[in-house]
Design goal:
The protein is an all-alpha fold. The chain has helices at about 5-15, 30-40, 45-55, 60-70, 75-90, 95-100, 120-130, 135-145, 145-155, and strands at about 105, 105-110. The protein has 2 domains: about 5-90, 434 Repressor (Amino-terminal Domain), CATH 1.10.260; about 120-155.
Length: about 160
């Protein structure tokens, strides 16, 4: 990911090359905020980057790629090759094929909230303490686990394996 300074320079350079003033980009983002972006004093959001790039008539990915290429001190061809390799990694992980399952129409479906599962060794340790006749509090202290986690396992109906 390019640094804020490098992206700032790319934005400023592109705006200047288009012959636009900061005020002329006012429909994309407030001139004061654009000044802060171009001086690397504030971060850009994806929404802002999309609006600015639309006004500059340049794809936002191209702006990011140019900044990344400059920062890595690599040619644009090398940058594109790197991006292709990264995209192939994501494709191999199944990210591209799984994307439709995250949407209903154009709306992003809510993610499933959840915590990491409790490791089976921890579950077995709690159940072993229960089988030995220890209290939940004693088990919590002995195993260094939250009392709520011990309580959840204690009343889960699971058996010692």
């Amino acid at each position: 990911m390019p640094s804020r300074s490098t992206l700032a320079a790319i934005l400023r350079s592109t705006r200047t090359a288009r012959g636009l003033s900061q005020e002329q980009l006012g429909d994309a983002v407030e001139a004061r905020h654009l000044h802060n972006l171009e001086h690397a004093k504030s971060n850009i959001t994806l929404d802002m980057l999309e609006r600015i790039s639309a006004r500059l008539d340049v794809d936002p990915i191209a702006l990011l790629a140019m900044a990344s290429s400059y920062e890595r001190q690599e040619s644009l061809a090398a940058c594109i090759a790197h991006l292709q390799a990264e995209m192939k990694k994501l494709e191999a992980l199944g990210v591209l094929s799984s994307l439709p399952s995250h949407f209903e129409g154009h709306d992003l479906l809510p993610g499933k909230a959840g915590k990491r599962p409790i490791p089976s060794e921890r579950i077995q340790a709690v159940l072993a303490c229960k089988a030995e006749g220890m209290t939940q509090k004693q088990t919590s202290l002995k195993l260094g686990m939250a009392a709520s986690t011990v309580h959840k396992i204690w009343h889960s109906g699971l058996e010692v394996v």
